[in-house]
Amino acid sequence: MFTRISNFTYGAYRIANIDTVGANNNIDLILHIQKYENECLRLVLGECLYEDLMSNVEKDADGYYKLKDSVDAKYGWLLFGHKYEYDCSCDSQCKNKIWQGLVREVAEIENTKIFETVMSSYIYFNWSLNYRTLNVGVGEAKGTASNTVVENTRNKRVDAWNKMVQDVSFGFTNANVSLYQFLDHFKDDFPSAERVCFKTMTYYD
Fold first, then answer.
1. Burial class of residue 19, CB neighbours in 10 A (0-12, 13-18, 19+)
2. Does a structural domain hold residue 55?
3. Does some domain include residue 201?
4. What is the mean pLDDT of each run of 10 residues along the chain (205 residues)?
5. How far is 142 from 144, CA to CA, in rounded Å?
6. Range of the domain at 113
7. What is the pTM of this model?
8. Are 121 and 89 contacting, i.e. CB atoms less than 8 angstroms apart?
9. What is the pLDDT of residue 137?
10. How far apart are CA 20 and CA 9, in angstroms?
């Protein structure tokens, strides 16, 4: 898998207790990562580009995917990002564009690199959806905690979905482009890419 467990130990999509050694829900999270990362990549890339990408990666010593030696540079662009020039025929004088990659290095702590992935927000969305309630044998239940106010999980779930749509479809108004904008700019390198017309969600959906 590309997505590290560390994606969910901080920030907006933090999942409780997984940063504790021996946490019981680590196995559940790993299953979610593997299942929904695969699902997300097939969804946003299309089956042919997904298979093409996966044929050019292999597992490292820690079990995460890395590029094989001597692969075409375009797979490194797709995975880890690419800065390039593109004339969009707009008013801006700057032609620089940045695709941040499906896998992004965001920090380094004690010589350990921290990565985030485009797929992590999709994984969190499904984690939150699947754990809205817990099966307790006699039905479904919601957990409670003392000195806290219970808040609906919908808001963060919607935020996660919209973040994925932003990264994949829309990009940003500055130099940062979305996955689909990047693939459009390099359509000759990725002719098998397919696209899905994603829609954002509101807190009332």
1. middle
2. yes
3. no
4. 87 74 67 94 97 95 92 96 82 80 90 89 91 50 46 79 93 84 95 93 79
5. 7
6. 5-138+148-185
7. 0.83
8. no
9. 46
10. 10
